[in-house]
Amino acid sequence: MTRINNKFLLVILLLIFIMSTASCGSNQKMSADQGAKEDSVEQNEIGNSAEASLPNTDRKIIKNGELSIYVPDIIDTLNDVEEKVSQLDGYTSESSLNNNGDDRRNGRITIRIPTENFTQMLQWLSNTGKVQNKRIYTEDVTEEYIDLEARITNLKAQEKRLQEILTKAETVEEILKVEKEIERVRGEIDSLSGRLKYLQDRLAFSTIKLTLQESVTASSTLSTPGFNSFFQRAGVALVNNTNTLLNGTGNFLIYCIGIIPLLLPLALIALILWILRKRIFNSKKDIEK
């Protein structure tokens, strides 16, 4: 009788827990675009009071920048940028180098720099050449950050309670139900923890997207590139044109020889027609005489 009562009590506890977690989960979801949704009364008051009590220095602000600069030599500038980024404990996540086709190169590089060195890095980059475009923008993720931390804390508490219930389970069916619920809670924790880790990375390291383009420099001396190696290039052109003429003549002769088998029947037919025409013409002359 006692064992039956224990089973009945365990099932009731599990059902109450599932209903409470479902209700709590639906109340805690928040959308970043629409703002904070209604939560349970107690959690909502705690969240709002915590957010209101945050000073400006504790807000979670993501800093980003975009910079486009004309530089004299793009290779030297890229090397200098790599060295400066390393000095400021940052790193580059992406870079590319292209040629415009007019002997001017352009390059793009994505810089991840510690947030505390963001302003210093921007000022240094602005001094490497002529700034064409500069854009700095921020993103306040304080609300989402606080919400993620609160939801992860609640889910971990739920997981702990589920582990306690699991120790009291006696049948295989009860164990499977509790383990399934633990797996669901653990999945939510992992998902929210991944998002929180992503925000922490963006808060710790600011992103600067840098575009470099070589500037056009006027030459102070006369340049005659058209006469460089004149005789050598003229000789190459003469040889190339001669080879083209010889190849064309050879191809024409080969074509003529190749169509001889086709011309012989035509020539024979033409000869027969000419003989017949001549005989007919001679016959008419004889009749007239």
Q: Can you summarize this structure?
A:
By secondary structure, the chain is of the alpha+beta class. It contains eight helices and five strands, in the order ααβαββαβααβαα. A five-stranded mixed sheet has the order 2-3-5-1-4.
What about the largest sheet? 5 strands, mixed
What percent of residues adopt helix (DSSP H or I)?
A: 55-70%
* Ends distance: 149 Å
Low-confidence stretches: 24-52
The helix-strand sequence is HHEHEEHEHHEHH
Structural class: alpha+beta
How large a portion of the residues is in β-strands, by DSSP E?
15-25%
Count of helix runs: 8
Indicate the overall shape.
elongated
Radius of gyration: 43 Å
Q: Strands of the largest sheet, in order across it?
A: 2-3-5-1-4
Number of strands: 5
Key phrases:
elongated; 289 residues; alpha+beta; five-stranded mixed beta sheet; 8 helices
Protein model, in words:
The chain has 289 residues and is α+β, with helices and mostly antiparallel strands. The chain has a five-stranded mixed β-sheet with strand order 2-3-5-1-4. The protein has helices at residues 2-28, 41-52, 74-87, 118-126, 142-168, 172-204, 230-258, 260-288, and strands at residues 61-71, 91-99, 105-114, 130-140, 205-214. The chain is built from eight helices and five strands; from the N terminus they run ααβαββαβααβαα. Residues 24-52 have low confidence and may be disordered.
